[in-house]
Amino acid sequence: MKVLMLVENDFEDLELFYPFYRLKEEGWEVKVASSSTETKSGKRGYTMTPDMTYEDVRVEDFSALVIPGGKSPERVRINSKAVEVVRGFIKAEKPIAAICHGPQLLISAGAVKGRKMSSWIGIRDDLIAAGAEYVDAEVVVDGNFITSRMPDDLPAFCRELIKMLKRY
Amino acid sequence: MKVLMLVENDFEDLELFYPFYRLKEEGWEVKVASSSTETKSGKRGYTMTPDMTYEDVRVEDFSALVIPGGKSPERVRINSKAVEVVRGFIKAEKPIAAICHGPQLLISAGAVKGRKMSSWIGIRDDLIAAGAEYVDAEVVVDGNFITSRMPDDLPAFCRELIKMLKRY
User: Fold this and answer.
1) What is the pLDDT of residues B59-70, one digit of tens each?
2) Which one of A74, A151, B1, B26 is most buried, by most CB atoms within 10 A?
3) Is the pLDDT of residue B168 over 90?
4) In terms of Cα–Cα distance, which of A8, A19, A3, A60 is closest to A155?
């Protein structure tokens, strides 16, 4: 099992590292893609060196996509190559787990209309405006989408992600 | 299942939050004890409000003890009530998982002699001086002790902790 994460500077540190370590705990491989392979920093100062750029991602190599929050997703979504990667996972109907501001990528990919989703409350209105059915819950699973609100939701977020990946 | 963590200021944020969320993901209860119930801060600025003081801990209420690292363990060990709590877990032979500087508490409790253990390399010589057999590995399990070196060891650390707790 191989999982991809999309990360830029000012990521929410726990939302990157909890799923990153958690999937490794399961014995799975986790790769990080970014706009460059230069080391990126979280809001709290933890660092992560990406394995590859968005251009080098081959969606067929991965079983799932995880998008941590913080200010990172706003930086990821302005890169059209990154949005193409997200569209690849959507088209292939592979599991996509997005937490906090992570669902911003799903708006950019034009994929939220009619989907039940959660997110950080600050972008709730963007999800609603884009046609999603917003749910204020620690985790919302709708088809291949898993979404959560914030770091304290990480236990529920990863429980559902791992459950989905074990079925996959 | 109910697990206790011992925490003071300047804890290593990931070493507190990864096990904290991970045990909750498993559906278990996690309680945090400290010198006071005032909110404590990690080295990176994440915060945790303790549930109880060391005085209020009843070892018989818990199945295991987890000691995260950072500068927290040095602050925990100077409190004799905290060391008494650790001795209670040792006497009851309950699982004790300590990462990074966490094993400093096991030195203070006089419990490392002849035990195979790991830790952050900076306190390796203290463990050896106190009679432990130091092992440079992502996780070392010796009887009821689980020890690791640093945040990147968290997947292995929690994998062994959860395996031990499921047997317990």
Assistant:
1) 999 999 999 999
2) A151
3) no
4) A19
